[in-house]
Amino acid sequence: MNKDIILKETKSFVKDKLYKEGSGHDWFHIKRVYNLATYICEKEGGDEFIIKMTSLLHDIDDWKFSNNNNTTENFLKSLHVDEESISKIINITTTMSYKGGVANSDQNSLEGKIVQDADRLDAMGAIGIARAFTYGGSKNRLMYDPHIKPKNFQNLDEVKNLDNHTINHFYEKLLKLKDLINTDTAKQIAEERHRFMEIYLDEFYYEWNFNKEK
Ligand code: ADP
Ligand code: NI
């Protein structure tokens, strides 16, 4: 199978699986990550096929909603993708997630760095804010509770189970992403998105406290 056909098959596979996924990993997230990663790849280099395939597949085996973590590998084998490409793709998808900041997700390949940057950029800015509140809503969380102060987590179970408000997520993750970006191209985009989140938070607290009794 040639690479264009493999990419086409992969798009329809992922679209089918994630179209209406409700915790922020829906098909449109995948498409945005794919577009961002392709843009970064144009500027920074790297293997375009691996970058595109990994962007499409990066959330399929996600620890938060998948109970079977070799779906990606089985799918790639069914398309007769060569072993070397399969191992490159799986290596990245299994290691790139931030997991609430408790996992080491450093990437050693340029392809991994690029897809990770694209995924992180989509958690920032206007889209990142919308995704955070969507995620919080899917867990029935308050958007904000001034009595619960920002907190970091120590382990994965805590990340999964903690009942926290969504504004906290800015401090545990979103505002830290800018300094974790790998490539110069993504850093430029991250600066703008970071600034937007800071402005958003200022306005949020301003409105929250409007005419508050002393
Ligand atoms: P990754 O797999 O890259 O670590 P996640 O799966 O943790 O990313 O997050 C997917 C989306 O959901 C992101 O936009 C992220 O900011 C958001 N999200 C994750 N955890 C929370 C949370 N506790 N509160 C609000 N948003 C969250
Ligand atoms: Ni993602």
TrEMBL record:
It holds the Pfam family HD. Residues 22-133 form the HD/PDEase domain. Coiled coil: none annotated. InterPro entries: HD/PDEase_dom, HD_domain. It comes from the Bacteria. Gene3D superfamilies: 1.20.58.1910, HD-domain/PDEase-like. This is HD/PDEase domain-containing protein. The gene is yedJ.
